[in-house]
Amino acid sequence: MSIGPGTRIGAYEVVSPLGAGGMGEVFRARDTRLNRDVALKVLPDFFANDPERLARFEREAQALAALKHPHIATIHGIEEKDGVRALVLELVPGESLAARIERGPVSVNEAVRIARQVADALETAHEHGVIHRDLKPANIQITPEGDVKVLDFGLAKMGEAGTTSTGASLDVTASPTMVSPSALTAATVLLGTAGYMAPEQARGKVVDKRADIWAFGVVLYEMLSGERAFPGESVTEVAGAVIHKEVDLAALPDDTPPHVRLVVTRCLQKDPRQRFRDMGDVRLALDGVLMTPVQASGLIAGSGRDARGYLPIAAAAIGAALMAGVAAWWFLRPPAAERPVIRFAVQTPNPRALVPLIELSPDGQSIAFLQNADDGPR
């Protein structure tokens, strides 16, 4: 069925195209019954022609329709005409976060404000068992009032591993944006937007809500840096970077607060067990109330990565820890005894390198630290 302006699908009349992707085309449409504009997402044939998969999708769409949140675009319903199935979605005005990032890096305050709303939406969805699995700037809309709406929420839940009605294996556990159009005949199909897939997602493994946490970290990184976290000229090259390469944390602005840097770092751990366990923890960390600088420093040291990649973060954490220690000493010192302030300098083997981790001995007489020398040993 050819779809264009004037096409009717149920009570909805197509006005103009809005975009297209692997999971279908999106149109602005007019609800002739309620006299309002909506977004109409027409599902691809490989879903519309598979009754089993379509039935599962409809059950999951019902669950999503019951998910009410100010930062999640609403699903109004499902329509069908001549074998064409379409989702009826809330039409959100404004621009996508992708369009905003194209104009350059987002200020730290604005990025945190946007990220905070996205985290709130993801937290609520995860609590209801809904995983997005295709979170990216193009699926985040910013209204003229500055509010955030997450689009295409949870559509990937209709993509569980299984078989099509033709008997072909179809692995769509990764994400709802299709890379290969041969879903009905391919032995295995990897779905997803490569630059935002978690490493386990790019490997075709079954994923959970921690894949959303990874994608959230990628989105936050791109807002702050204005650069792609995992650039590449092809899907294969990008997926390889996601699996094997680290993001360039030096690209983050100098004024990025330590707790925001730590959110990016913790979200982008290759091992999902090392990421935040819950979006609620991400939200608290964004607010700067979850992790102390000492805990953050320990997390960096224990991540198993090359410490040189975390030097800017660790240095900031050390500075915050030292300030916190001075404050604690000031407020908790015994009132009867006046204690002198002791200041000292430590000559490090490599004066040009930052110190990633520092510890004070229990008796207060010695300090120990790790540092990468020019020749490699620490």
Explain what this protein looks like in three dimensions.
- Helices cover 33% and strands 16% of the residues.
- It is an alpha+beta fold and 378 residues long.
- The chain folds into two domains: 8-291, Transferase(Phosphotransferase) domain 1 (Transferase(Phosphotransferase), domain 1); 292-378, no CATH class.
- Strands 1-2-3-4-6-5 form a six-stranded antiparallel sheet, covered by helices on one side.
- A hairpin with a 2-residue loop joins strand 1 and strand 2 (12-21).
- Helix 10 packs antiparallel against helix 11.
- The longest helix has 22 residues, at 311-332.
- It starts with 7 loop residues before the first strand and ends in an 8-residue tail after the last strand.
What CATH architecture of the largest domain would you give?
Orthogonal Bundle
CATH class of the largest domain: Mainly Alpha
How many extended strands?
13
Give the overall shape, derived from the CA principal axes.
Answer: elongated
CATH superfamily of the largest domain: Transferase(Phosphotransferase) domain 1
Q: What amount of the residues lies in strands?
A: 15-25%
What is the SS-derived class? alpha+beta
Question: Biggest sheet: strands, sense, closure?
Answer: 6 strands, antiparallel
The number of distinct helices, counting runs of at least 4 residues, comes to: 11
Strand order of the largest sheet: 1-2-3-4-6-5
Please describe the topology of this protein:
Blueprint: E1 8-9, E2 12-21, E3 24-31, E4 36-42, H1 45-48, H2 51-65, E5 75-81, E6 84-90, E7 95-96, H3 97-102, H4 108-127, E8 140-142, E9 148-150, E10 162-163, E11 169-170, H5 199-202, H6 209-225, H7 235-244, H8 258-267, H9 279-286, H10 293-301, H11 311-332, E12 357-360, E13 367-370
Antiparallel strand pairs: 1-2, 2-3, 3-4, 4-6, 5-6, 7-8, 8-9, 10-11, 12-13
